[in-house]
Design a protein that fits this description.
By secondary structure, this protein is of the alpha+beta class. The chain has helices at about 15-25, 40-50, 70-75, 115-140, 145, 165-175, 180-195; strands at about 1-5, 5-10, 60-70, 85, 105, 155-165.
Length: about 210
């Protein structure tokens, strides 16, 4: 049994400033103000668009991210419908094979200390789920049958592709204090990277803000 923490990876090189320059060129078509473009005008132009709620312009750019998290988190992620997803399949992945090391990988819950009683109870349950899963496979069950006992804490990989407007919507909902702690753990770390890689468009979103 392997225990990990969530992580993420961008699946393309992100040149945030070039991305914003393209968005400015697109957005200025609406106002026929292309002649006002300068080397730095994209910052104020796009900040003004967001302030006025004219967010459809930023739908022209998209970002793909591979998330490694637990399956419970992905159940919330895929509720964002203006997106594309590709997820590791428990129907077809047979975790008893050598490529998986004949072990299950689980994501540590962020809300319990590892030396706490509750964490110990959770860890025992994961070990029991792993043992049962392999016993079922060894007894002749197929992976899609044996997966019925796999818990939400099972590690999964999912690629999510959203346009920048939908990423803004995702972060506003999933980094807010009311979000599920494990969903928030994933979203806050991802938001910090978006804010670093793509100026302006995510600067107004704070994990301390209410939805």
């Amino acid at each position: 049994m392997k225990l990990i923490t969530p992580s993420h990876e961008f699946l393309q090189e992100i040149d945030g400033e070039e991305m914003l320059r393209r968005l400015e060129r697109i957005g200025r078509v609406c106002y026929k103000s292309e002649g006002r473009i300068t080397d730095t005008s994209y910052r104020t132009f796009l900040a003004d668009l967001l302030a006025r709620g004219h967010e459809s312009v930023i739908e022209h750019e998209k970002v793909s991210v591979r998330l490694i998290c637990d399956r419970g988190v992905t159940h919330e992620l895929v509720r964002h419908r203006i997106a594309s997803y590709s997820q590791e399949s428990t129907r077809y992945c047979n975790y008893s094979l050598d490529q998986f090391g004949r072990e299950l990988t689980f994501v540590k819950p962020c809300f319990w200390r590892e030396d706490s009683q509750l964490y110990g109870i959770w860890e025992d349950a994961m070990r029991a789920a792993e043992d049962t899963y392999f016993r079922m496979l060894d007894a002749g069950a197929s992976p899609q049958e044996a997966r019925s006992i796999l818990p939400n804490s099972l590690k999964t990989e999912i690629v999510a592709t959203m346009d920048l407007r939908e990423w803004r919507h995702f972060f506003k909902l999933r980094t807010a204090p009311a979000a599920h702690p494990q969903m928030r753990e994933v979203a806050c770390a991802l938001l910090a990277d978006f804010q670093q890689k793509i100026p302006v468009l995510f600067d107004d979103i704070s994990p301390d803000s209410a939805p």
